[in-house]
């Protein structure tokens, strides 16, 4: 039979492509495969059908079945929802690639830019059940046989990137590595939106697009977006990777899926007594490497000479010049050795991208979160839809393993936004919907998202248990967008200036309905809400039977906020946008979140009775 022909060179190349373990090998084998089958990978629209037709190989067929199943979902409208759209995705991290796959299934032309030319991150990501299900559906097991076998629920970052890169290429996504995005180039003459790249002569610099997705990781913020800082108490994370020789003895050693100090005082006390290492928590995953991530106490790092000098500023404290690399290696090694009961006796560090021992120390004290997830810019009549996904949207706290889960949720939400854009939905509505969904992201947990993983799609309603896609009035959304544009871009916006009054109207409505309450003086949409009394007053004004104002103290801020949040959630179905503790303790209340929340309160109280 032709499809079992062992000498067919394209079959052998396909096998090499599937098994490739470096970014370079994946790209080389893919190019070779395209050559052998005489298919132009740039011909994105017909690439995948041609590949299926010409590569008549049983191993490939099992993969096509999986990809076809995903592609046949009604959301993609047979790959025609976004045929007119051209999307530039910045960053080939897991979230950029996952977004690119969805955009290509929608029928868009997709180009991904990645500044690195290798995937070298050994660190291991915790996967929520839905991400495992999702990746299996994309054929993860075909590319990586060990993928989440048994009860395993993690994968190294590089292995995940490799899987997603292969799927992207098969679906016709153009992925360029070794090219750095340096900014957007505004339309001029007949040209639309383009990107400034390094090297400048890179062919992707000529690509014109109407959708720009930034998945540049950590602190990469494109123009027009603003990050806010969430500052917690000092948290110093250490990651370390050791070579996994895959011996029977290593296989026996139990993983530690998260031991926090509060749950195992004895273990941490013994660790401290025997080694002088003082940790808040530790996680150990056995993957391509033996991977450890731990949160260490500053005092013990100073005592063990890992940190040379004490500074109150976390950046100064962890600056490379203030860290003794050798001592850090010893610290991480000893913590790993002790926590695995000495059962990993030959702990030898794996190498990082720079060929050094793979150990790193990070500051988790300050996390970033984008204020908005989407924007539309317009120049010379050419609109550009912009979206953020992954770590550059919400920076995760790694020990909680939220990075990939929330990253993938945002990738799907973003694809949903691009779908609406492609289908001609008014752009304010597109943005309104995206921002409404974004407000839910930071609260998502495996428990409060749908358990019906098989039904997950880019439609947010299949994933979030409670999502109101039109939670806020269009004029208020436009006010938010306008506010952001005016503040951050400092250019004339194309929105109707009359929409500027959205915030003022909301403020006036709040003032009207909280007037006369003791210790309540609403003058803005941020600080005036800190004590929680204004929210309680609003509830009391509309539903006096729900709350007893006489029992509330102005100083009891957390209680007041928690009470109001609970009533609004229970009685009106409005989920809180932040925790009561955050609202009460936050030095700077996030205006966008409060506007979003209060608008829902306003809508609920002013909705006509059913
Ligand atoms: P990333 O994975 O960070 O990908 C962003 C990509 O964009 C990168 O490949 C980067 O090279 C590229 N890029 C950035 N700027 C440009 C530009 N201007 N032009 C072109 N390309 C650009 N999570 C855990 O759960 N556990 C861990 O131990 C852990 N360790 C980490 C270690 C490091 C060094 C980093 C950076 C992240 C780590 N994370 C860890 C976070 C985790 O990697 C992310 O949550 C996850 O990879 C999803 O990220 P992403 O795709 O949004 O961004």
TrEMBL record:
UniProt feature coiled coil, ranges: none
Grouped into one coarse class, the protein's main location is cytoplasm
Keyword Glycosyltransferase assigned: no
> Which intervals hold domain Calponin-homology (CH)?
500-606
**One Gene Ontology cellular component annotation held by this UniProt entry:** endosome membrane
Respond yes or no to whether keyword Cytoplasm is given for this record. yes
Tell me where in or outside the cell this protein is found: Cytoplasm; Endosome membrane; Midbody
One Pfam family named in its UniProt record? CH
What are the required cofactors? FAD
User: What are the alphabetically sorted keywords of the record?
Assistant: Actin-binding, Coiled coil, Cytoplasm, FAD, Flavoprotein, LIM domain, Metal-binding, Monooxygenase, NADP, Oxidoreductase, Zinc
- Matches recorded under CDD domains: CH_MICAL_EHBP-like
What's the domain of life for this entry?
Answer: Eukaryota
Report the EC number(s), separated by commas if there are several: 1.14.13.225, 1.6.3.1
Q: What is a GO molecular function of this protein? A: metal ion binding
Group of enzyme by EC: oxidoreductase
Similarity field: Belongs to the Mical family.
Q: What PANTHER family does the annotation carry?
A: [F-ACTIN]-MONOOXYGENASE MICAL1, CALPONIN HOMOLOGY DOMAIN-CONTAINING PROTEIN DDB_G0272472-RELATED
Protein name per Swiss-Prot or TrEMBL: Molecule interacting with CasL protein 1
Instruction: Tell me what organism the protein belongs to.
Output: Sphaeramia orbicularis (orbiculate cardinalfish)
GN (gene name): mical1
